[in-house]
Amino acid sequence: MKISEIYTFLDAMSPFSLQEKWDNSGLVIGSMDREIEQIYIALDVDNHMLDSIKPNSLIITHHPLIFGGLTFLDLSKYPANLIETMIKKDISLIAMHTNFDKTHLNRYVFEHVLGFKLEKQSDFICKTNGIWTKEELIELLKNKFKLETLKVVAPKDKITSIAMITGSGASLMDEIDADCFLTGDIKYHDAIKAISQNLMMVDIGHYESERYFVDILAEHLQVLPILAIISNSKNPFSFLK
Description:
Blueprint: H1 3-13, E1 26-29, E2 38-42, H2 47-52, E3 57-61, H3 80-88, E4 92-95, H4 98-113, E5 120-122, E6 125-133, H5 134-145, E7 151-153, E8 158-168, E9 180-184, H6 188-196, E10 200-203, H7 206-210, H8 213-221, E11 228-230
Parallel strand pairs: 2-3, 2-11, 3-4, 8-9, 9-10
Antiparallel strand pairs: 1-4, 5-6, 6-8, 7-10
């Protein structure tokens, strides 16, 4: 298939026009006219993945390999080292990031992974109402995300509403109208602010909450007349006991 055909399919499923202004979703490396032989789906691109991919392939990732403008390419450093490998192997790249968060990923994790009833969604934010104790909610999150420990800001013991953003969503804290906010990459000063606002926050992990991207997209790509292969990205963090 031509990349332009795949791009059109993806755009109909999750319009690239929905991406945030700071994002870089869409065709990141390659040409719309290029014919590719297979698709690989991953959360991110890494060296291990590129070593195993066949030439003349298309990678579709959640995170864009290139975010800001590149003024030069130091081929010994990230991301230029990966870009060089991709060009040499005729590997193209499309990213589906904030557009996919809004149309698919957040809702899927909220409903199908955590089992919550979605009662309201605004762009990235999914929300539900109910009654949970702090202990019940923490145990549920550990089980669903398969985590042994959780980083928690817990100024309250009873929760009647939960909001969630996958990935790194703490910057949207002021838009949260709920007792508890689930997201990843919660920083120290985010926690201080949450306590001052009587908001419970649980760090559900960036990788842990977004790894479902590959499963969602793979299911949609089954209708295309081309092989789509899941390449499971590895969590860059190790958790030592």
